[in-house]
Amino acid sequence: MHDFAFIFAGFFVGLIVGLTGVGGGSLMTPVLIFFFGVKPYLAVGTDLLFAAFTKMGGTVSLARQRLVPWRVVGQLCLGSIPAALLALWALRELGPASAQAQHIMTTTLGLALLLTASATLYKVVVFSHKRQREEHGRRTGSGPDALRPRHWSLPVLLGAVIGTLVTFTSVGAGAIGVTVLLLVYPLLPLPRIIGADIAYAVPLTLLAGLGHATLGSVDWPLLAQLLAGSLPGIWLGSRLVTRTPERLIRSLLSVLLAWAGAKLVLI
Q1: Whole-prediction pTM value?
Q2: What is the pLDDT of residues 207-238, one digit of tens each?
């Protein structure tokens, strides 16, 4: 029965990701901690590999459609990969199961969830109307200007911040990454923004997940059960996305993430 519950949790998270595009880490990690009582370090480590394997398929699909701006992915990785390695070194020094590391993880996870909730709500309230006006006007996405950030250092700094967040919490790509990328690359079309966000998350979450595995922070049977549910969930969600009230789902999701984030910060 417990195994079936994990599979169902994977299916639920996969369905929401397929419907809204919100990163699975912001959902799966709090579900594992609050509903199943999984230790934070095991929840984070397992969810990192869950995200890596899940997003690999999405990257392949987007790359075939030529929607992945690899130059942007490279700029983000320049910051995220070194930051992830430093965060893994810090976790190794602290010991992932130590009380200090657990406190850092839960507090950082709570803050990351609050940021994700804010970013999700921002996209619902502000972005949808603003984006419709701008999309036909100033975004071409085909020229070299579209791949230029507002400042050369911004994608590296963004990558470093998200790399640290992801390694400590498995949250950071997804809603936060997409929202900030929209500001850093103002001429890049939304499908290519999403393509960049998903593609650079693969090496980041894979590196961080394998690093957690070396620390004993991955539950492999749990990972298999989550993937068994998430893959059909994502497939179904991607096909229902045009038939569901996305703004309502995102609004409810932002409230849920804010509640989970506040509860973790106040622990």
Answers
A1: 0.80
A2: 999 999 999 999 999 999 999 998 888 778 76
